[in-house]
Design a protein that fits this description.
The complex is a heterodimer.
Chain A lengths: L2 E11 L7 E12 L4 E5 L6 H9 L6 E6 L2 E2 L10 E4 L11 H5 L1 H5 L4 H14 L15 H13 L5 E5 L7 H18 L2 E6 L2 H7 L2 E6 L2 E6 L1 H6 L4 H6 L4 E11 L2 E6 L2 E6 L9 E6 L4 E4 L5 E10 L3 E8 L2 E8 L1 H4 L7 E6 L5 E4 L1
Parallel strand pairs in A: 3-8, 3-9, 6-7, 7-8
Antiparallel strand pairs in A: 1-2, 1-4, 4-5, 9-10, 11-12, 11-14, 12-13, 14-20, 15-19, 16-17, 16-19, 17-18
Helix pairs in contact in A: 4-5
Chain B lengths: L3 H30 L2 H29 L8 H8 L1 H34 L5 H12 L5 H10 L4 H6 L10 H26 L2 H9 L4 H30 L2 H7 L6 H10 L4 H29 L18 H29 L1 E3 L3 E4 L2 H41 L5 H13 L2 H11 L1 E2 L2 E2 L4 H26 L2 H9 L4 H30 L4 H4 L7 H10 L3 H30 L8
Antiparallel strand pairs in B: 1-2, 3-4
Classes of the chains: A alpha+beta, B mainly alpha.
């Protein structure tokens, strides 16, 4: 079952008197196809959680509609919606055992006890908690609590699964492990899922599609690759991963190709839309796309800072008085430039993405 | 100056806002309407609050207003008398001074127990609970036994007759002993919630111990101190027992005068007018406490107590504070111990030999009263507890029209002086269809609504500590409001519920100021009988009666704890 958000808007009363309304979500429209995992990604306060709470039924939209399949569920209370949420702080019932937590939704639906026990066992197995049904929540580690929260949501076989920053309370290693697990289970069940996070690597790893939100609006909606490689705004480029913006101006434009003047050099890059000559543009350059070499390159730079990270080295390079970030992989093989070294800066025209200013 | 059309825009924006607001309320209503039990309970609670809290107040006010040209004639007549003006001043003085003294003593003890490394902390804590689980006028009785005409100290030890203990002096001693535990228990909570690392930080920045106390600890505790002052002011102002026992005719107070106007002179308008006068400072203090002081609080949720690594006081101060705590404890123990001795003595002041005469006398005259008292307390306590929790749940977790009014009204009954409530009840429920005077119902209703704020406060505090996400998760899993409340909220708040229950039970057993208007030949209460024993000079019988009362309370607390733990597996601490 797909989910459709249509012109969703949510206003809250402002806590201070001067501004009377705070617009948390501003005309968001989005379609999530059956079986798809879509991530709402953005900085805190961008409206992603409010969107999720409108889908789950905890907030009533000020305007707009929410559809599950063809059914308008905008004003349906949460307990009557066919969705299940995994909460940020797990929201595990502290007075119930793991099995009773997981079986809660089933028992509310008046399923016979033996059947509940059977289903709970199966689902605990699926999330890797086999044999832990009798434990109390305070006897579990953070990761295990997370699994209980997940099991509790999916055991009811909801048509839509909602995640509200489910991994933000886990440490980095566990986070990476759990996101793979969540993805595996979501694909295994073929369930439609909306996932809210502010962690871009989590979003990249888990999603079919990423929706970047900012100040209540959608900035960009696309696959992880599109979002990273073809961001359609400086905000998106900056929010997803590290980025350099290099200023330039268009010299000439042909079909599919644009000549840009950068650092006093004319570089031809690929670009579908035509841009008028003279347009000021920003070149979006990921640090890993910038290569430093001993030859001339496009411009000369001086290494101003070096951070050794083991698997890679991060450089800051001063090029025409502007600092540029560059990442070189495999320093064991390539060696490291010391601070003060003069280097040539080079990038492949294929990796450049252009944003008009 | 703004161009004229901007006003039009303003209006249209406002209209739009109003429309959206209306729409939102409509949607909210729509949601609530899907759960009819919620609407029914909300309406039922409003009806009950209107009937048992608002109506009695209105009746008292109405009775106090004269029908003639000058509606305030009753008031003018009353306060034309020097004696009544005196009563007003006395009440206010007593209220203010006993609040200050009780908070002073309570703060010293609370600070010592929470911040200073001394032995016997548990013991001090226990001592502070004794006055709470005794009827409030027992300390007055002790003063009579110690310093009265046949007083142990004055007459027996010092040979003084007619020592002037009646009046303000005796009353202040009695009230301080009764009310310091209230300050102690609440300030202990306040001080525990202040993170000691803040004090450590101040030390670390070079402040002296005194400076840390004055600049960090005291300001952080200030809202709690102000709140304790106001609460004790309210309680002391409304208190009825000790002024009746100790003040005598030379030191009139409002609560006592109101009682005497009604029961002695059958002057209902006069009594009602005095009650209204009593109402004004109480409600003012309540509003200050609720809407100003509590907003200033720096301590929102009591966190885990963290241990301080630095000693807050010097060694000398430490032993001085310890000595003060010991002294307080000795005074309390002497005051309540003397009741024991009094209960088992032949004739106070003359013959201290052991006897059970007082107990057999009390048993003969008071057996039915004991039964009545326990019945009333056992009936009213669970009702008020459940209602309190339910209102707390609605107030914290639901949004509906009139929510603020519901909270205010139900909390208000705490601020109403018992005298006002008592008079209000006899005025409001003395005719059909609400003919309740002299019945069990009126006593139970009185206690239910009088102590419902305790349940609400407990419930609100507990609910605010439970992550709303937990309840949302249950809703999300398909549970409706009713199921969420029964299966999630209730089990989580039950420890607080039961500790509130114990408190309400204790108060129902020991309260007097409203109940004294409501007892009858059919349904009498122990506190009322004890007071009448005191008034007629049978101090030994009063002491024996008090011991039985406290004994019942202690047994009941232990029983409730054991039963609740066995049957429901809920462990709780009785909080006072």
């Amino acid at each position: 079952m797909g989910v459709i958000l249509k012109d969703l808007r949510k206003e809250f009363d402002s806590p201070d008197e001067h501004r009377r309304k705070v617009v948390a979500v501003d005309n968001v429209s989005l379609e999530i196809r059956e079986g798809e995992l879509v991530t709402l990604l953005g900085p805190s306060g961008c409206g992603k959680t409010t969107c999720l709470r409108m889908v789950s039924g905890f907030e009533i939209p000020t305007a707009g509609k929410v559809f599950f399949g063809d059914t308008d569920v905008t004003n349906l209370p949460p307990d009557q919606r066919d969705s299940a949420m995994v909460f940020q702080n797990y929201a595990i019932f502290p007075h119930l055992t793991v099995a009773d937590n997981v079986g809660f939704g089933l028992s509310v639906r008046k399923m016979p006890k033996p059947e509940i026990a059977q289903k709970v066992d199966a689902i605990l197995d699926l999330v890797g908690l086999a044999g832990m049904g009798k434990r109390m929540p305070d006897q579990l580690s953070g990761g295990q609590q997370q699994r209980v929260a997940l099991a509790r949501a999916i055991v009811n076989e909801p048509r839509v699964l909602l995640f509200d920053e489910p991994l933000s309370n886990l440490d980095a290693k566990l986070r990476e492990q759990m996101r793979l697990e969540i993805r595996r289970i979501q694909q295994h069940l073929g369930i439609t899922a909306i996932y809210v996070t502010h962690d871009q690597s989590e979003a990249m790893a888990i999603s079919d599609r990423i929706v970047i939100m900012n100040e209540g609006r959608i900035e960009q909606d696309g696959s992880p690759r599109e979002i990273y490689e073809r961001p359609n705004s400086a905000f998106v480029a900056d929010f997803i991963g590290k980025v350099n913006f290099v200023e330039g101006s268009v010299v000439a434009s042909r079909s599919g190709q644009v000549d840009v003047d950068v650092w006093g050099q004319v570089i031809t890059v690929e670009r579908q839309q035509n841009l008028q000559a003279g347009t000021r543009v920003k070149l979006v350059l990921r640090p890993e796309a910038i290569h430093l070499g001993d030859d001339r390159g496009y411009a000369k730079g001086v290494i101003s800072n070096v951070v050794y990270l083991g698997s890679s080295v991060e450089y800051n390079v001063l090029v025409q008085e502007k600092s540029l970030m560059a990442v070189a992989s495999s320093p064991i093989e390539q060696g490291i430039y010391p601070v003060g070294t003069e280097v040539g800066v080079y990038f492949s025209p294929k990796v450049v993405h252009i944003l008009p200013e | 100056m703004a161009p004229p059309f901007s006003e039009g825009i303003q209006v249209s924006v406002m209209l739009q806002d109003a429309r959206q607001k209306a729409r939102r309320i409509f949607l909210e209503l729509g949601r609530i309407a899907q759960e009819p039990w919620l609407i029914i309970s909300i309406l039922a609670i409003f009806t009950l609050l209107a009937l048992f809290i608002i109506l009695p107040i209105l009746k008292v006010v109405q009775m106090s207003l004269a029908p003639g040209e000058s509606v305030l004639a009753t008031y003018f007549n009353l306060f034309r008398s020097w004696y009544m003006r005196r009563a007003l001043v006395n009440s206010l003085i007593t209220g203010v001074l006993s609040a200050v003294l009780a908070v002073f003593v309570g703060f010293i003890m609370a600070y010592t127990v929470t911040r200073v490394n001394i032995p016997f902390k548990k013991f001090f804590n226990m001592v502070a609970i004794i006055p709470v689980i005794s009827p409030p006028f027992v300390s007055g009785l002790s003063i009579l036994l110690l310093f009265g005409n046949n007083g142990f100290v004055t007459y027996h030890l010092l040979g003084i007759r007619n020592f002037p203990i009646y009046g303000l002096r005796g009353l202040l001693i009695a009230q301080t002993i009764v009310f310091f535990p209230v300050a102690y228990l609440s300030l202990k909570g306040v001080l525990e919630a202040i993170n000691p690392t803040l004090e450590d930080a101040a030390f670390d920045l070079g402040a002296s111990r005194w400076k840390v106390f004055r600049r960090v600890t005291l300001p952080l505790a200030a809202p709690g101190i102000a709140s304790a002052l106001l609460v004790i002011f309210i309680e002391s102002l409304a208190d009825f027992g000790n002024p009746l026992v100790l003040a005598g005719s030379s030191f009139p107070t409002l609560a006592v005068q109101a009682y005497l106007e009604i029961t002695g002179m059958y002057n209902l308008p006069g009594g009602a007018a005095l009650a209204v006068v009593l109402l004004i400072p109480s409600v003012t203090a309540f509003i200050i406490q609720k809407y100003w002081v509590s907003k200033k609080s720096y301590v929102t949720v009591s966190g885990k107590p963290t241990r301080s690594s630095v000693k807050s006081v010097s060694n000398t101060t430490r032993w001085i504070l310890f000595a003060i705590c010991c002294l307080i404890s000795i005074v309390v123990l002497v005051f309540y111990g003397i009741i024991f001795i009094g209960a088992f003595s032949q004739a106070w002041g003359y013959d201290y030999s052991f006897t059970l005469r007082n107990f057999s006398y009390v048993w003969d005259v008071g057996y039915k009263t004991i039964k009545d008292t326990v019945t009333v307390a056992l009936l009213s306590t669970p009702i008020s507890g459940i209602m309190g929790m339910f209102i707390a749940f609605l107030v914290v977790r639901k949004s509906f029209l009139g929510k603020g009014a519901m909270e205010f009204t139900s909390m208000l009954s705490f601020a109403l002086p018992g005298t006002v409530v008592g008079i209000g009840y006899i005025l409001a429920f003395n005719q059909k269809p609400l003919l309740l005077t002299g019945t069990l119902t009126i006593l139970v209703a009185n206690f239910v609504f009088r102590y419902v704020p305790v349940g609400i406060q407990n419930g609100v505090a507990t609910l605010q500590q439970i992550d709303p996400g937990i309840e949302e998760a249950a809703t999300d899993l398909g549970a409706n409001s009713q199921t969420v409340f029964r299966r999630i909220t209730l089990p989580l708040i039950s420890p607080a519920f039961f500790s509130g229950l114990v408190f309400a039970f204790v108060r129902a057993m020991t309260a007097i100021s409203a109940a004294i208007f409501l007892v009858s030949a059919n349904w009498n209460l122990m506190t009322v009988q004890i007071l009448s024993q005191v008034s007629s000079g049978r101090l030994g019988a009063a002491a024996a009666f008090s011991i039985i009362l406290v004994g019942i309370i202690v047994v009941a607390i232990v029983l409730i704890r054991v039963i609740v733990n066995r049957l429901l597996g809920v462990k709780f601490e009785a909080k006072f």
